[in-house]
Amino acid sequence: MMTPPAPAPAATSQAKRPRNSVPLAPEASKEAKRLAAVILEVLAGVRQPPQAAEALQLSLPRYYQVEVRALRGLLAACEPRPRGRRPDVARELTGLRQQNARLQRELARQQALLRLAQRAVGVAPAAPAPKASRKKRRQRQARALTVAARLRQEAAAEGPAASEPAASEPAAGSP
Description:
Elements: H1 30-44, H2 49-56, H3 60-78, H4 89-121, H5 143-158, H6 160-163
Helix pairs in contact: 1-2, 2-3
C-alpha cells in the first residue's frame, strides 16, 4: 500500500536555507574566498601546489608564502579566546577622563585651601616658578638640499672644468 505524498510546505517570504549554510565570512572579498578555496583543495589533496599556483596566477614560491600565511591565520583563529567581558577602550577612556576631571577639581580645592591657610597665618604665597626659556632651534634643511649643496662643493673643489655646467644652477639656499 502506498502512502500519499507529503503536502508541499507553505511558501514563506524567504527560501529555506539548507543545513550548514551559515555564511562563513560575509565581509570577505571574492578574491579572498577564491584563494581560501584553492588552498583548502591543496590541503585536501584535490590539487597539487603547482596547479593551485597556476589557477591563482601566482608563482610557486609566492603560492607557498600565501599558504603559510593562511595556515598561520588558521592557527591564530584556533587559539582559545579569553572568557568574560573584553576590555572596552572607549569605556576605559571615559573613566580616565572622569578621573582626570575629578582630580583637577580636587587640586583646585587643595590650592584654595592652601591660599586660605597662608592668608590666615600671614605668609605670602609662593611666587610662580619662572618658565624656562628654550633656545631657538635652527630650522632643519631638507636632506636632499644638504646633499645637493655638498655635491656642488665637491664638484667645485675638483676643478673649474667640472663646475662649468653647474655654474648656471643657483647656489644652495637661493630660490
